[in-house]
Amino acid sequence: MWLNPCHPLLSLDTLRRAVDHVQATGHNSYTSVIATTDWIFDEQGNAVTNTAASMLSTAHSPKFFKVAHGFHVINKEFFLKDFQYWTLTHNDPALIEIPEEENYDVNTPIEFEIAEAAYKRAKTSAQAA
After folding, report:
1. Per-domain residue ranges of the chain
2. What pLDDT does 51 receive?
3. CB 98 within 8 A of CB 19
4. Are strands 94-97 and 29-36 parallel, antiparallel or unpaired?
5. Angle at 126 between CA 123 and CA 127, to 5 degrees
6. What is the 8-class DSSP label of residue 91?
7. Which helix (H) or strand (E) holds 109?
């Protein structure tokens, strides 16, 4: 299991659920994802996710999953044999959804400030509960 050190808000509960899921299933690889109903377009401006012109709200959009890069789990033998992490076929990688509020990838000073503020808010909320 590879953990991204730039994802400081991943909780132990999320990591435990991921480990439990990996141990309970037998997929070749796994990756962390977050659900989205965003409308995504390709470089030419073609709709990728929402292709229904009548749909005006993301509340009705189908759910898609974005790779969070919080963690990946790979099969060591597969990697050493083929020097690849996964095949990008169904369940390779298998998707492990993480909470959106834990998906802060910190690579810049402003991202650090945002993650720090989110951490302080979550800590304050937990103490109040």
Report:
1. 2-103
2. 82
3. no
4. parallel
5. 85
6. T
7. helix 109-128
Average pLDDT rounded to a whole number, residues 23-39: 95
* DSSP character string of 3-68: E-TT-TT--HHHHHHHHHHHHHS--SEEEEEEEE----B-TTS-BSS---TT---GGGSPPEEEEE
Q: Are 2 and 72 in contact (CB under 8 A)?
A: yes
Report whether the peptide linkage leading into residue 93 is cis, meaning its omega lies within 30 degrees of zero.
yes
Taking 80 as the threshold, does the pLDDT of residue 115 lie above it? yes
> What contacts 32, CB < 8 A, 6 or more positions away?
18, 67, 68, 69, 70, 71, 72, 96, 97, 98, 103
